[in-house]
Amino acid sequence: MASNSGHVRRVKALYKAILKIHLGLPIHYRAIGDQYVKDEFRRNKTSDTKQTDIFMHEWTKYYVTIAKQLSHKNRTGVIGENLSSDFLDCFSSEQLGQLYELFQETQKPLKDKE
């Protein structure tokens, strides 16, 4: 990611905010989510400016979505959202593989996650 110190602070702040919001998730989703976030932020450390802007925008949207879903005003018990086929068409084969692995992990019985 870009070396600008202000930018680095924003990235770290978003990273910490996401991990903090994950505290409101069920424990098995929290563990999966925390690991995924750590891996993604680590993987994108050396991205160019354009990719970093997209990365930050998408992770900010994720944060806002989870915050709304966990708020007491909107407590439906549903975490996440469905992805449209148009949205999925924008993914690379590597991203689709990661998404499928994440999906499989969330479908495992709770006893397998302990």
Automatic annotation (TrEMBL):
Cellular compartments per GO CC: mitochondrial intermembrane space; mitochondrial matrix
Transit peptide is among the record's keywords: yes
Biological processes per GO annotation: mitochondrial respiratory chain complex II assembly; succinate metabolic process
CDD domains documented for this protein: Complex1_LYR_SDHAF3_LYRM10 (cd20270)
Subcellular location(s) per record: Mitochondrion matrix
Keyword set, alphabetical order: Chaperone, Mitochondrion, Transit peptide
InterPro entries, A to Z: SDHAF3/Sdh7 (IPR008381)
Highest rank taxon of the organism: Eukaryota
N-terminal signal peptide: none
Protein family: Belongs to the complex I LYR family. SDHAF3 subfamily.
Record note on quaternary structure: Interacts with the iron-sulfur protein subunit within the SDH catalytic dimer.
Function: Plays an essential role in the assembly of succinate dehydrogenase (SDH), an enzyme complex (also referred to as respiratory complex II) that is a component of both the tricarboxylic acid (TCA) cycle and the mitochondrial electron transport chain, and which couples the oxidation of succinate to fumarate with the reduction of ubiquinone (coenzyme Q) to ubiquinol. Promotes maturation of the iron-sulfur protein subunit of the SDH catalytic dimer, protecting it from the deleterious effects of oxidants. May act together with SDHAF1.
The protein's name: Succinate dehydrogenase assembly factor 3
Organism listed in the record: Octopus vulgaris
Lineage, top ranks: Eukaryota, Metazoa, Spiralia, Lophotrochozoa, Mollusca
